[in-house]
Amino acid sequence: MPSLLGIDSGLTVTKAVIFDIDGTPIAVARRRVTQFIPKARHIERDMDELWTATADAIAEAISLSKRPASDIQAVAATAHGDGIYMLDRSRRPLGHAILSLDSRAGAVVDRWLESPVADEAIELTGQLPHVSAPSALLAWVKEQEPSRFAEIGHIMSCKDWLRFCLTEAIGTDRTEASTSFTNVRSQDYSQDALKLFGLEALADALPPAARSDEVVGHVTRVAAARTGLAEGTPVVAGLHDVTASALGAGGYASGVVAVIAGTYSINETLSSEPRVDRRWFCRNAIAAGQWNNMSISPASTANYDWFLDRLCASERASSEASGGSIHALLAPEIDAAFERPSTALFHPYLFGSPYGASASAGFFGLGGWHDRGDMLRAVLEGIAFNHKIHVDALSDGFAFGEARLAGGISRNPRVVQMFADVLGIPVTVTETDEAAAWGAAVCAGAGVGLYADPQSDPRDVGKIARTCHPDASRSIYYRERYDLFREIAKAMTPIWPKIGRLAPAESRD
């Protein structure tokens, strides 16, 4: 029976999902991938470990599917965007990959934002440079690690590294190509963009860009032996996970804002013309002549995961060892906290924020009578409030009347209702747990002719969707808390840099 393989590699977990061509998941396998934090603001991963973990997940998914690998008609990968994965001229990893949670390039970006580079960048590329952009990270490498910079042979994104491991073909897709170096109007690479950031030497290192649904290679003999895939299986270019998630959640359309509550706070809407603003990125959509307008910050459920890892580690380990879920274990605590008044507020800025690289996370309003449930509730509310900052920004430039929510927390009905109450618009979720992987799989299917195009989703999305409408009284309640959340952030803006200066100078790149 024909099937499709979607690979979805996030910042902590890489997974392989096999789907029937009607969109039904057949098998899912996951592997955690180590994050290395050698010092403050440096967040990295070993590229070979990522491939090993992904290959293991693919092999397990094939085994779990109880179907021959030859049933898989095509493969596509999606993964976290931004950050940078570098190869030397022998096409081997050039040190660790730098992840999109990394903020080592803060000083580079601050310098650009205080110069004409900022205005020139938004006019040319459709976006302000930010700390995890390839432009900023490569400029940091050029300044701080010149010998490493001189050895760069190829620059790529996470999903492009996995594609290379499958096919030995170097390249990217249109959505990923536009993270730093494309002209926002032509949607093609721009030498002027490289020159703007002082990176002209990397002109030959840019990967060729294909359509997200274009077959760009085939599974090699080596990759087939490692993963269990059939040699020669077509591999399509794939796409940035922001776009893949919106596509898989049924939110990839104009008139809708896709809200992806993952490691990053992703909020995006489609347009048929480029519209630039400092509050969002105007990047390439899947099709030429369309743009994906993204207002984002690295400040969403990574904060919730951090809380679980650091403050619930033993319970998480015992839950997973017994086949349970830490989320189910904590649900009663969180539900109880939502039922009582609370003064606790949380700014979810462990890894970044809309307020710049100097912002940091913090609880406010905590008392000795608060418990872990109150803190988790505050974390979840802070995540929703941060999404609202971005959704409100997009609403100034684009018309939309509903949101499509994806991400792990969208499985919790109470959280979905909270998002509706906070955003003040209907919020719809689908039963697709693996939205990003399905977005990649749809591109794979389109690439081999199973679907007319990536937006020809074979599912009846209406039948698998559930919508929460905002409750007027709760929206008023959350508006008061949100306004205070913003007021505290405004007051903290001149204080956050002072807090940052408490760190040793060598950790403040």
Automatic annotation (TrEMBL):
Enzyme class label: transferase
Lineage: Bacteria, Pseudomonadati, Pseudomonadota, Alphaproteobacteria, Hyphomicrobiales
Domain Carbohydrate kinase FGGY C-terminal per the UniProt entry, residue ranges: 258-446
Name recorded for this polypeptide: FGGY-family carbohydrate kinase
Membrane-crossing segments per the record: none
Family designation: Belongs to the FGGY kinase family.
Domain of life, per lineage: Bacteria
Gene Ontology MF, one: kinase activity
Residues in Carbohydrate kinase FGGY N-terminal domain copies: 4-248
InterPro entries: ATPase_NBD (IPR043129), Carb_kinase_FGGY (IPR000577), Carb_kinase_FGGY_CS (IPR018483), FGGY_C (IPR018485), FGGY_Carb_Kinase (IPR050406), FGGY_N (IPR018484)
Signal peptide from the UniProt entry: none
Its EC number(s): 2.7.1.-
CDD domains cross-referenced by the UniProt entry: ASKHA_NBD_FGGY_EcLyxK-like
The UniProt record lists the keyword ATP-binding: no
Organism annotation: Rhizobium mayense
Keyword terms: Kinase, Transferase
